[in-house]
Specification:
globular; Transcription Regulator spoIIAA; 5-stranded antiparallel sheet; 250 residues
């Protein structure tokens, strides 16, 4: 997948407290100054967040939003999650608890989209394509943060499709279902597959593709990558749950 300078994963080494906050703040501020507009703060090694940590989260969130970006938390422990809930942080930003990410159930074959739009993407018009996706998603039952993340994820898929396949053969389909929004990016390349529970490549010619897949998985609820059922090419399917289905996620 095409690399994106707009997205970064920042790990917290140990608890997010007065001793670790300065280093985390410096790293986030450095990323923001370089133009990063989507940051995931990984709290996998943090079992505790003190008042300094809370202050960091809220300050950096305000900074990101003032620049049109977004900060979110991932791999949050139960104890830290309870503290964040008491501080009403959950109302302000996306927070994902620790543990395996539950994949959405497959759609019943009889369920038809409520709305569906497909358009072709030209090689020299990626920015226009991303803007069109954002406009279409903005008309669907998604929050502004969800629209932001889905647009970034689609941009990753588009960048790879245009960079590595035939020009003029990339299609984007945006579909709205009762419990989810799906975006498909299809191309006419040699074809590539990766199961949802399979780790993307970290080395070799597909390493960059693997980085993009990891980013898309962070930004969405499901990423399916498969060869076309007919003809040559790959279909990348991105899913974001909505309504009650979204509220039961870990």
């Amino acid at each position: 997948m095409a690399a994106s300078v707009n997205i970064a994963l920042v790990p917290v080494e140990g608890d997010l407290d007065v001793t670790t906050v300065p280093a985390v703040r410096r790293r986030i501020d450095r990323l923001v100054s370089r133009g990063c507009r989507r940051i995931f703060l990984n709290l996998a090694d943090a079992s505790y967040v003190d008042s300094a940590g809370m202050g960091l989260i809220l300050t950096e969130l305000r900074q990101m939003r003032s620049k049109g970006g977004l900060l979110s938390l991932m791999n949050v422990s139960d104890q830290a999650y309870r503290a964040l809930r008491r501080m009403r942080v959950l109302d302000l930003m996306p927070v994902r608890r620790t543990g395996p990410h539950a994949l959405p159930a497959n759609l019943d074959l009889g369920v038809l989209p409520q709305r569906r739009m497909t358009f072709r993407v030209d090689e020299g018009s990626l920015a226009d394509a991303r803007a069109r996706v954002a406009d279409l998603l903005g008309e669907l039952p998604l929050t502004p943060d969800e629209v932001f993340d889905m647009t970034l994820a689609v941009g990753e898929a588009l960048g790879n499709a245009v960079d590595h396949t035939c020009a003029g053969g990339v299609l984007v389909t945006v579909a709205d279902y009762p419990d989810r929004v799906c975006v498909e990016v299809s191309d006419c390349g040699c074809g590539f597959e990766l199961a949802e529970d399979e780790e993307p490549p970290e080395a070799g010619p597909c390493a960059e593709r693997g980085r993009g897949i990891r980013l898309m998985r962070l930004l969405t609820d499901s990423v399916t990558i498969s060869r076309k059922a007919s003809g040559e090419g790959t279909v990348v399917r991105l899913v974001k749950l909505v309504g009650p289905a979204a509220r039961v996620r870990p």
